[in-house]
Amino acid sequence: MNLSTEGLIIKEQNTGENTRLVTVLSKECGLIRAFVKNAGSIKSGKGAATRLLCYSRLNIFKGRESYIIDDAQSIEMFMPLRLDVTKMALAEYFCELAMRFFPEDEPCPDGLRVILNSLYLLSKGAKPPKIVKGAAELRLMSICGYMPDLICCHNCKKFEDENMHFLPQSGILLCSDCLKQSKQQGINTGLGVTKAMRHCIYSPIEKMFSFNLSQEGLNVFERAAELYLLNLSDYDFKTLNFYKMMR
Ligand SMILES: [Zn+2]
């Protein structure tokens, strides 16, 4: 069976002379692993279009046991990312998130859009990396069934509070009074960061990155999103550790 789809290469491994195994986040089938034969061939352009972080049009043969990429033409290579080791590290973290959370052989169009938009903004330098990272983390978690509840204080239903707190362990908000009573630990996201976090998960995907924060707000925002994701996944992301080491 032949399959024609667009897809982002999120992992590559050399498996033998001239053959590579790649993991593709594809539009039609979600996560798939596929072999690229004659990957070193200069003529076809297939080799280049199936490198890590290429978004390409792919012709794939689906055999009984494996997928084989017959042809590939690149649509977007995100070249500026390849010239910046810190941005590249963050991009690879997004790839690891996709591998960890997205379903196999099942399309996840919203997840793919969030990842592609994140790579695009990072590549263009159009948004601070802390906004791209935190917004992507919150939205991807929401798409994969772990949406935090940021509508109002989880206890008294107050919508706004100067000292609203986000609890990364449970993904809820508590106002200052309810937090005191609960004796739990939270991150003070106040008015600004709370609003930004709501925007990331409740706005349409094309608008989810459209907000700004002060330097201090960015740090709180980034910390809240990352802790929420790490608490949920209970996983040590090597690419995240590398990114933090690089910046
Ligand atoms: Zn409350």
Report on the structure:
The chain is α+β, with helices and mostly antiparallel strands. It has 2 domains: 2-77, OB fold (Dihydrolipoamide Acetyltransferase, E2P), CATH 2.40.50.140; 84-246, Recombination protein O, C-terminal domain (de novo design (two linked rop proteins), Up-down Bundle). The chain is built from 9 helices and 9 strands. The strands form 2 sheets. A 5-stranded mixed β-barrel has the order 1-2-3-5-4. Strands 6-8-7-9 form a 4-stranded mixed beta sheet. A hairpin with a 2-residue loop joins β1 and β2. Bound molecules: zinc ion. Zinc ion (ZN) binds at residues 153, 155-156, 158, 174-175, 177-178.
User: Count the strands?
Assistant: 9
CATH architecture of the largest domain: Up-down Bundle
CATH topology of the largest domain: de novo design (two linked rop proteins)
SSE order, one letter for each helix or strand: EEEHEEHHHHEEEHEHHH
Question: Can you tell me the number of structural domains?
Answer: 2
Portion in beta strands: 15-25%
Question: Which structural class do you get from the secondary structure elements?
Answer: alpha+beta
Major beta-sheet overview: 5 strands, mixed, barrel
Can you give the helix content as a percent range? Answer: 40-55%
Shape verdict = elongated
> Helix tally?
9
Instruction: Measure the end-to-end span.
Output: 45 Å
| Mean pLDDT score | 95
CATH superfamily of the largest domain, please? Recombination protein O, C-terminal domain
Spans where pLDDT lies below 50 across 5 or more residues: none
Strand order of the largest sheet: 1-2-3-5-4
Query: CATH top level of the largest domain?
Result: Mainly Alpha
> Ions, cofactors, ligands: which are bound?
zinc ion
CA-based gyration radius: 20 Å
